[in-house]
TrEMBL record:
Organism this protein belongs to: Shewanella scandinavica
Name of the molecule in the record: Restriction endonuclease
Entry keywords, A to Z: Endonuclease, Hydrolase, Nuclease
Molecular functions per Gene Ontology: endonuclease activity
Length: 348
């Protein structure tokens, strides 16, 4: 089934069970948990074009929440409890935005929470809904006060190839392919499936061929494009017929694989600690919830000479074992009063 079909079925399930927005749902529940992509599709389909004209700001906010409840099949509460997040069952908050100045007051920005940002025009008509994770929202902070990202240090050794975790985590071991599989007909950004997850040792075998490879450097201010080139090479090495990137974590969702190109010893890890046992915002695989520490990390180390990137080393590990090889430093600091200027392209 496609994304909108599965989303609509989950809405019917929520409605039939008579759930409230406060009823707990396991992250990734294949019958009730709405992924961020599903939330986005549903809310854009059902809210865009609706008018909030003539309403005071507090009433406007409440009315928007009621619209979201109806769109997702929830029973309307008699009043919205002041809990964090307001839609605690699906782990998200809503914000109605006429300006690009997003304000998150009196609470920390939660990297694992979703933020549903509803755009209204000068006539107070809803024009777009954007669903974004706290980790992605934090990236938009340009003041430097919002967060200090997790970082680690990569100290190269004499080994060119290092399989730091020879086995996957116990949590996903029973989901792995029992024999080598062909991935040419699979989408690298699609939902992982039982029997289609390559064991970490098999990933290591397939990715070894990239050590010694070179590719043109996109330039010092084009780090994202440089990473995209490597990402495409990784997809090809694993056996995919095409390269796709939706900008979400992990890079190759179908294999629970995050890819990093390191031309310095400082590893930027973003707002998620690799060994975190927090649940990843994807559907369960079978009945198994996937945690951040189950994700596999492929680190390609190299150098840039005369405009060419040279890959010299490969390190592969589970998040669970990440810090057995790489030294962690820094930490995470989140402010309670946060103002973020959304870029003009945010709702495009």
């Amino acid at each position: 089934m496609n994304t909108i079909t599965t989303a609509q079925q989950k809405v019917r399930n929520i409605s039939q069970l008579g759930l409230s927005i406060y009823d707990d749902i396991k992250i990734g529940d294949i019958h009730l948990w709405l992924t961020s992509d599903e939330l986005s599709l549903l809310l854009n389909q059902r809210l865009v074009g609706a008018s909030l004209a003539g309403l005071p700001i507090k009433t406007r906010s409440k009315t928007a929440k009621e619209m979201v409840c109806r769109a997702l099949g929830y029973v309307l509460p008699t009043s919205f409890i002041k809990c964090q997040p307001r839609f605690s069952g699906q782990m998200f908050d809503t914000y109605v935005q006429k300006s690009n100045n997003l304000q998150v007051w009196n609470e920390e920005l939660e990297v694992e929470r979703r933020y549903v940002i509803i755009r209204i025009d000068e006539n107070d008509v809803i024009t777009k809904v954007r669903v974004i994770s706290g980790s992605d929202l934090a990236v938009l902070d340009t003041t430097g006060t919002l967060t200090q990202k997790f970082q680690a240090r990569l100290t190269p050794s004499h080994k060119v190839l290092e399989l730091i975790s020879p086995y996957d985590t116990d949590n996903i071991r029973n989901l792995l392919a029992s024999s080598p599989i062909v991935l040419s007909q699979c989408n690298p950004t699609s939902q992982p499936q039982i029997g289609q997850l390559l064991p970490i040792a098999e990933c290591f075998i397939r990715l070894q061929q990239l050590v010694g490879c070179t590719f043109p450097d996109a330039g010092i201010i084009q780090e994202r494009n440089r990473g995209a080139t490597l990402h495409a090479m990784v997809c090809n090495a694993l056996g995919y017929s095409d390269y796709r990137d939706n900008g979400q974590f992990p890079d190759i969702k179908h294999q629970l694989l995050e890819v990093k190109l390191q031309t310095s010893q400082t590893i930027d890890l973003g707002l998620f600690c690799p060994n975190s046992e927090a649940i990843l915002d994807i559907e369960q695989i079978g009945t198994q919830q996937v945690r951040h520490c189950d994700v596999r990390y492929a680190l390609f180390y190299g150098h840039i000479t005369n405009g060419v990137v040279h890959i010299t080393n490969l390190y592969l590990t589970t998040g669970e074992s990440f810090f057995t090889r790489f030294e962690q430093f820094g930490g995470k600091v989140l402010n309670k009063k946060i103002q973020i200027t959304l870029p003009h392209s945010f709702f495009n």
